Amino acid sequence: MQRGHLPMSRTSKKSSKQKVKPSEETIESLVEPKSEELSPQEPSSESQVKLARLDPLPKYLLEIGRFEPLTAEEEERLALLYREHDDQEAAYRLITSNLRVVVQIARLYNRVYTNIMDLIQEGNIGLMEAVKRFDPYHGARLPTYASWWIKAYIIKYILDNFRIVRVGTTNERRKLLFNLRKEKEKLRLQGIEPTPALIAQRLKVRPEEVVAVEQAIESSDLSLNAYVDDNQSVQYIDTLKAKEDAVDEQLARKELKNLFNREIEEFSRTLRERDKIILHERLIAETPRTLQNIAEQFEVSREAIRLSEKALITKIKEHMQETFKDVTDFELATSL
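Below the sequence we write its predicted structure tokens.
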């Protein structure tokens, strides 16, 4: 569905987002915004035209004002052309003639998300999806059908951008976001306590999801740079435990390990063949050979190999203690 370019596309650069702290009422109100009689403003005066050079919304309205709405007959003809012949020109006209609808719907949600241009962009994606799926044989007009897709894309965008930690990340949670408050009110009106288990049963989701969504709605984002108390001496980020050691400790451990490996290599040159096998293929090997396996190689008893290994370990310990006088047993162990 490509023809030139639309006045607004998903890949266009978005302006900085302005977020608000959501509440349960705010999120629920997304599904049923206050109805207002809104129509796209088409600036015509000289002052409005000047404003359009600075404000992206009036400029955008000027651009989409070039596209006339379609009559029912024109809409049906174009929809059939696109559906049956994949006519891209028809799809382009269906989309551009309904860009005003996107603006009208985006304005309904502007009270909960202040950057209307972001909402219009998402709504345009919903409009294109509606055109792809529109079936003119059902008898409905495209603006009526498309409004549901436009709202769905705008609502999902708002929910995804309310806070850093997203709430509606699964189908179950999205269903809860849309229906949780309504279901609670229905149960209370019937004199029934809306427990998570009961709500989960009625909405056909898991009780854990109900609890998680309730907690997410009631909570708010916390900055890691916020102070823990009024003294403003410690920030939350200072209380987090690092999963990895400091860089200097990692470098020191790596250097110690390299030195240890070099010493082992030097030490092994002084050993006889059987002790070298025990050292490299059993003591420091990732998958050590068994005592019996080595014993069979040298045609001796398993006990003889065990005693050789014990004596070798003693030699290694004495050699390393002499070489690493200033290194503690713990440091040496963690370097291996």
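The chain has three domains: 1-162, 165-222, 247-335.
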